[in-house]
Each structure stands twice: as C-alpha cells, then as structure tokens.
Amino acid sequence: MSTDPTFRSERTDDTDLARAFDRDGFVVLEGLLDDSEVRTYREIYDRFLSGEIDAGDKRADLGAGAGRSGATENITQIMWPSDLYPEIASLPLHGRAQAIARQLIGEDAELDFDMLIAKAPSTATPTPWHQDAGYWVDLPDERAASIWVSLDEATVDNGCMWYVRGSHLGAIRPHRPAGGGGGAIECDCSEDEPGATPVPLPPGSAVVHAGRTLHYSRGNTTDGPRRAYILSFRPAAMIARERELAMDHGLTENVRTVRNSLAD
Fold this sequence. Notes:
By secondary structure, the chain is of the alpha+beta class. It is built from six helices and 13 strands.
C-alpha cells in the first residue's frame, strides 16, 4: 500500500501529534479528507448500506436485540470493505491513514483491518463502553492505532466517539458480551468516569485511538445518518502473529463468531 504524505494536521506537527497520542490515548486529525473526497466515500458507503455491494457474512448488526426502529440494522458493521470492494483501497484514505499510523506507532505499521460502522437515523442504540484490546488476542507488542474517520457531522446526539483520557495506560478491564447477541462486547465504564470526553468531528476529520483506550458512543437520535470508516493498524510482525492464531477480524470468518469465542 502506498502512503500519501500530503496530509498533515494544520494545528499539530508530527512530534506533538505523537506526544498527544501517547499521553491521552487518542488524538484528533483535522481535515483528513476534503469535501470532494468525503462525497466519494459516502457514495461507496451507501452502496454497501443499500446492499448494492454485497457484504455477505461480513455484515452484522452490533445492536442486535436492541429492538427495531425501521432501519435494516441498529448499528451496521461491515468488516473489510477493502476486500469486498478493492478499489476503495486505491483512494486517498488508506495511504494517508497508514502515514499517520506510522507517525504514531512506528514505521512498521500496516493495515490490520478496516470496517464501516453506521448508525442510521433515530436508531438510538449506543455502542457500549469497551477497549478494542478486550477482544483482541494477546500479543507481545501491543502497539495499535485505530483511525475513526467521520463521513458526517459527528455530534454527541448522533453518536460521536467518547474516550477516557489516559485509560490506555491502565489495565484491560473485564469484558463480557453485550446484550442481544449482536457480537459487541462491553465493560464497566460511564460518561461520569474521570477523563471521559466526547469528540465531535466535522465530515472528513478523524480521531485515532490506542488498543486499550476506553471508548463508546451514544445512539443516533437525530434525523440524519452517522457514517464512520475505521482503519486499524499495528506492526506487521504482530499482524502475522494474529493470522497464525486465526484472528483475521472477519476476513475469512464471521466477525461475530470470532468475538463471541474470545468473550467466552
């Protein structure tokens, strides 16, 4: 995958970006995509949501069991859009995201997986508090960077991300399957936790978080969509180790099966 070195945060140089990531466990990237690029990604994204691009068993409802409100799913998750529609990997986001990941966690960062997570209008289904490392396999090198790119105006009311500052420096909390059997996991945390911070974003901006960073989002109670594209990076050697352990984040196996087996 080629990198695109043209993106730089307008407010934060590379050193400060990495320092903030190491300190807080998350960092905001402003203007990762321009307006025209956002429109391109929205068009492809909506082809996934409509079923025009068939996601098969890579599509799941993370909010299954939360009741229906007219949408196909409460929280639509589609794993590996770059495998289902390879052309998307040649667009600017993958290269820029990898360049950012290499600034934050090292030059050996490669794409571990990508996914789409959408909250349809008025679904009002929260994504529970969790740490990504709560369902990942144990690895000797835990460096990881998940880049959460907003394709809509992400607000508190439609499901912007919340993080607990500094939580990446603590332990992995006990996790359990979230109710409803949708494949989501959860741990004990709340918006009242010290350091809990909402991160609203304009379209085309992003937030990056570490594997142990506590995060969640409220349900979408607005009349507009909340579409996010997530790309996760870790060292190439650790990706190889994951694959040896049969953890490929749903590339060859339904992600719900993987997550549920790890949560047992």
